Amino acid sequence: MSIVLIGNYPPDKQESMERFALMLATGFRSAGLEAEVWRPKAVLAVGAKTTNYGLGKWLGYVDKWLIFPLILLWRLYTNSNKAGLHFHICDHSNSPYLKYLPKDRTTITCHDVLAIRGALGYEDAFCSATPFGKIYQKWILGNLSRFSGLAAVSELTLSHLKELDKAKDKPKEWKVIHNAFNSHFSQLPLAEAKPLLKNTGLNPEVPFILHVGSGLPRKNRKLLIDMVAYAGNEWRGNICFAGEAPDEDLVKYAADNNVAERLVSIVKPDHATLLALYSTCEAFIFPSFSEGFGWPLIEAQACGAPVISSNVQPMPEVSGGAALHADPLNAREFADALLSLKNEIKRNELIRRGFENSRRFESGQMINSYLNLMKLDVNQ
Fold this sequence. Notes:
By secondary structure, the protein is of the alpha/beta class. The chain folds into two domains: 2-180 and 363-373, 3-Layer(aba) Sandwich (Rossmann fold); 190-360, Rossmann fold (3-Layer(aba) Sandwich), CATH 3.40.50.2000. The protein has 14 helices and twelve strands. The chain has helices at 15-30, 54-78, 114-119, 131-144, 155-164, 190-200, 222-231, 248-256, 271-280, 295-302, 315-319, 331-340, 344-358, 363-373; strands at 2-6, 34-38, 85-89, 106-110, 149-152, 173-176, 208-213, 238-243, 263-267, 283-286, 307-310, 324-326. The strands form two sheets. The chain has a six-stranded parallel β-sheet. It is globular.
């Protein structure tokens, strides 16, 4: 038996989706199956500075939706003699590729429906859409509805997708399969973490709260500034944003709240540095308004960070009750949660439960669930 994974277009630089595809490939091989990843390649967009906007974006669309389907059809033809060949599309945004694949042997992972719901006017998705984006997301949704086998990464994602399903009358096997870690995450000893932090310019002797991710509005980064302002003199640590650099508006907002000198930005830290940040932060803060799953939450738990997160789903589902949850519109609640961690007993218990919860997301269990979804028995 062989599995072909349909990965994402490399110029789009969707690193988490690339790691997800490689994680599945490794897991399937460990289970005794052949697995490879097929990806659209840059043909017309070679040399384009970005595929996020402008000419590069449109050339990327041609690569993905006109050229790659032809390559898919050719590769299907040249692999037609392979028995037991199954396909899995790793990202729901590539659902239109189902048109070129055998429907009875193709499954897909839906990581979120935020962009789809945003395009349909749901304000709680916190994802705006251009006129073209609305058409594009409806196209993706229409193709998702055609899948008989689908894995959603959280109960929330599955329930939202079922609400939007345009083909409810057709038999489907749609189930929740939580994401596993897409890399190794564990607590780094302080002696190893400190030198890594010093290399970033972050003073390891000063306590800091941590946010990991992008600067998208739904990530709610301003809340970290507000919560520190509310904590006042009771907490005098720094705020570390790891991932995308703070934009001018966020920097100005920090200055207006007299915490600009406590802002630290670490742009795209390497994996070792990320482990050091998770392992030494005073708390990991995850105040998102909307998520499909929320990988950073379990990454922080696996590294021994106490987590303070939004009380909106799927964060409580993913945290397994091993986080402090607060209203993402209420910075004072987040500040109170941070100050409550001064109680060492409470802090240590939260960390212990976080370690326990993170064990739910090991790759072996996820791979078995995907094999069941595909109706593959490796013992045959």
